Amino acid sequence: MFLISNIHIFIILVVAPLCLQNVTLIPFGEAGLKVFHLSIAAFGLYWLYSLTFNINLSPPLMFIGLLVIISLLVGTVYGISSLFINYLFIFVLGLVIAAYPEPFSFAVFRQSLFIIAIPVFLYVILNIVFNLEAVIVAQAFNIKFGGRPIIPNMLFSGGWNIEATYLAMLSVLFIRSRWFIFFISITLLVSIAYLSRTGLVLSLVLMVYWVFFALYDRVSAFTLFLFIPVLLLSLFILFLIVGFYLDISVVKRLFIIGSEPGSQGRLDILQYVIPGLLDSMFFGYGPGNSMDKLIAMGLETNNNNLHNYYLQVLLDFGFLGLIAYVLFICYFLFNPHIALEFKLFLSLYLLASFVQFRGAEPLIWSILFFAFLVNPQKSNTSPLYQSAVMG
Fold first, then answer.
1. Are 197 and 250 in contact (CB under 8 A)?
2. In what helix (H) or strand (E) does residue 247 lie, and over which residues does it extend?
3. Residues 198, 188 contacting (CB under 8 angstroms)
4. Contact 66, 313 (CB under 8 A)
5. Which tens digits make up the pLDDT trace of 288-346?
6. Per-residue pLDDT at 389
7. Is the sign of the CA dihedral 371, 376, 379, 382 positive or negative?
8. How far is CA 337 from CA 10, 96, 99, 374, 391, in A?
9. Which pLDDT belongs to residue 383?
10. Can you give the pTM of this predicted structure?
11. Alpha-carbon Rg for the chain in angstroms
12. 67 vs 313: CA distance, rounded Å
């Protein structure tokens, strides 16, 4: 019904609005009605009409459902914040995607995502070009004061690091496509322009992934697993040294972690994690309540999340929520029915989660949900692919 040649209209209609995160139709205080709220609501009505459910999405929906239940139980003690609505929305998003009954190939998914990614990447880089003067000023600003370029009309909500991270995560889905160099080049340029250390690190990780895939069938195991990693590590160190002496601001920011406002604020938060965990009796405070509780305990910060999603899950949902999250991650990464690109997508999210994300990101979860609908056997027949998806 939704499939036209190698393009899946259902994927485009679900994912494309999730990229328009800063387009607010009706504001409600700090939040507001977004385009993707309306699109998912429309598909929700379709789901209610069809009442179909693809059981392949049972694991992720069970996990999100558990978080919703924990939120409601803990909410009887600490109250329910607006972030709970985000998790509830993710659950509805999963039901909407689960309404599609038939699996499809990764080639179809990637081609459909390509229709979305091209305008997204071009918009972000053009938006930087139109605000190039602000970028130049920020690059020249003393990095110890945390200067960033003033970029209006950013596509993704959450700031510079989040936008650069999303570009990197979307890029990995094209890692075995001829378009990968195009996507990773824009990601790297955006990370440098935004002074995003997270974006820069993910870009370098992406290049490591790409080199591994390019050489897997061409070199010996010794070269691939010993010589190549040593070579890449040497090149990474050389890149840092050259970048430092060329006065590339985002590289220099890597050398001052812990001594500038951005990282210092994160370190301050860490000091209150254990007291907060003990205060909640290991059950958590519920999504959106943790920072308020830590501030009440004496934390001085302007941050609205812990900037570490693992600790965020721990303080929001307690030990039960964290254990469920770890089990879901293991299930996803070792599931032979999930295509390799999706596993790499999650790996980048897990890496970035050490320093950012507050949870319930619709774009990320939409990709993870679709991973359970893609039939990896139709994606690629190369030895690398088969070994990766079959363990």
1. yes
2. none
3. no
4. no
5. 899 989 988 888 877 788 889 999 999 999 999 999 999 999 999 999 999 999 999 99
6. 35
7. positive
8. 21, 21, 19, 8, 10
9. 40
10. 0.88
11. 21
12. 9
